[in-house]
Amino acid sequence: MSEAQFLEAVKNSQGIIYKLVGLYANDAEERKDLYQEVLLQAWRSWSSFRGDAKFSTWLYRISLNTILTQKRKSSRIDYMESLEAVDRASSEQTQKREEVERLRKAIRTLPETDRALISMHLDGYENPEIAEVLGITVNHVAVKLHRCKQQLANLLKQ
Amino acid sequence: MIMSIEKTWRDIDEQSDEALLSLLQPKALNKLQSKNPLSTIRKNLLRNGIMGIIIACFYIFILIFFPYWQIQICIAAVLIFTVWATAGAFRLRKAIDGNIETLSLLDEMQRHYTNIQQWISSQKWAGLIIYPVSAAGGFMLGGVVGAQKSVDEIMSKPIMIWALLICMAVLTPIGYFLAKWLSHKAFGRHLKLLKQNIDDLKEKN
To answer: ipTM of this model?
Structure first.
């Protein structure tokens, strides 16, 4: 498989990298570093991609494994504090963008591994798929997911 | 509420980032370099291995050109440890895969954690074993070169024996704690975060 095919496939699924990195990076520099590392690791593993899984699932796995083993600083934030920045920017941005930013910040209050779980769930993955990617049991996924959803709903009501 | 969250989440797909788009070019892809901790450790181990070979050659030179048995014993001991540590560095480098594998997230984090711990442990052992013996060798060699006297003459004074013992007693813990501090400074925070994420993922309640 060629480099052009790889780039085309990643371009089509770039939202995965964009969304996941956005949940973990603390600043623009770290975001760029994580983009680079995810792309490099995906490129190095590309030869082993045999198409048994969907490309998006494979990229999800590579992205999560790279981000969570690369990071050296915790990236958990305080939701209320972080919202001040959103409010200031809201006059210049669309309503949709503001909501996205609120959701992203709410998810960033969760522990790092729970963010992986909730992002997969929101992207439509079933619990057994999430369990396989994370390496935990399906029951464990269900319990954690229930807790994360409650926590997010409470935060977003504020 | 959850439905609206899912819709908002899907809205992110409509956004993009210039920093990411700029990397999705053939030229950019070939210039990427890994900053992954295991890749960094592999580079570090390669550097240690090459340095080990150079230092071993230097010790062999000393063994040949300084025919004092006391120095030769210390240098021979340090040479053996250097060869052992160098071989260990290459073995560990071979065992560590710097690429991200398509294991589960939990397995991949545990693999990183174990490999980094192994590296830290190898650094501590090297610090504990190599520094004191090389300190003793260096002490005597310094005396021979500086004072232009034989080791027997230098070590004939009891104060020199005491100075040597104190030198080793001080340098052994310093070497050990320095190696420990340096490796924790390099990867301590990263290890702590990895451990926390592993525990979070395993946590049942």
So the answer is: 0.84
Which residue from A minimizes the CA distance to B98?
A: A41
- Predicted confidence at residue A111, as pLDDT, reads 92
Domain ranges of chain B: 41-202
This prediction's pTM: 0.80
CATH number for the segment(s) A1-75: 1.10.1740.10
Q: Please, where in chain A does CATH 1.10.1740.10 lie?
A: 1-75
Residue B12 DSSP one-character state: G
Contact check, Cβ <8 Å, A104/B19 = no
- pLDDT band at residue A144, thresholds of 50, 70 and 90? very high
What is the length of chain B?
Answer: 205
> For residue A88, what pLDDT is reported?
54
End-to-end Cα, chain A, rounded Å: 49
The parts of chain B modelled with pLDDT lower than 50 are none
Assigned CATH for A85-158: 1.10.10
B3 shares contact with chain A (CB less than 8 Å) = no
Residue A61 at interface with chain B, using a CB cutoff of 8 Å: yes
Please give the C-alpha separations between residue B138 and each of B52, B56, B72, in angstroms, as whole numbers. 17, 14, 11
